[in-house]
Design brief:
This protein is mainly α and about 160 residues long. The protein is built from 5 helices and 2 strands. The protein has one domain. The relative contact order is 0.21.
């Protein structure tokens, strides 16, 4: 595992996934109803999306090539958009027996939106090497590229 590969998008993705997961255990509605007590299936979907956000970060830190993390980040971004819509609907339409909205609901909304935004940020980062510092495609330090050897242009002789 190499945490030097993690960019700002992955760090935000980790925090947003943790916030969404933690919010599921906090009161979302009046009478101290948590998300797990209020929902039937949505709470499990949100927990899986939060776990997927953390898994995408772990994939970035452990994979040698950037293809797998970028694929996971794109899927997590779509899931984050879906999670934001789910939490927003539950914020606007209170479940039966809910007296009001609590702060856990707003933390869940911030976490879901954070997953979507952080996924977009991490996919857009092309990881260019800073001036004077050479890195490979994964962001690890690498030796500077060698000099390019020029070859003469081919002539028309010898071809049939």
């Amino acid at each position: 595992m190499d945490v030097r590969r993690l960019r700002i998008g992955e760090w935000i993705l980790t925090a947003a996934g943790g916030a969404l997961l933690a919010s599921l255990f906090l009161p979302w509605y009046g009478d101290a109803l948590t998300a797990f007590e209020s929902f039937g299936v949505i709470d499990v979907v949100l927990a899986l999306i939060a776990a997927a956000a953390v898994a995408a970060v772990l994939a970035t830190a452990t994979q040698a090539v950037p293809a797998v993390p970028i694929m996971l980040e794109s899927l997590v971004t779509l899931a984050g958009i879906a999670a934001t819509v789910l939490v927003l609907v539950r914020a606007l339409d209170l479940p039966d027996g809910a007296a009001g909205r609590e702060w856990g609901l707003w933390l869940g909304l911030a976490g879901a939106a954070g997953i979507a935004v952080a996924g977009l940020l991490s996919m857009r980062d092309e990881r260019l090497s800073p001036a004077g510092r050479h890195t490979d495609q994964t962001g690890r330090p690498a030796p500077p590229p060698g000099d390019v050897e020029t070859l003469p242009a081919p002539t028309g002789e010898g071809s049939a």
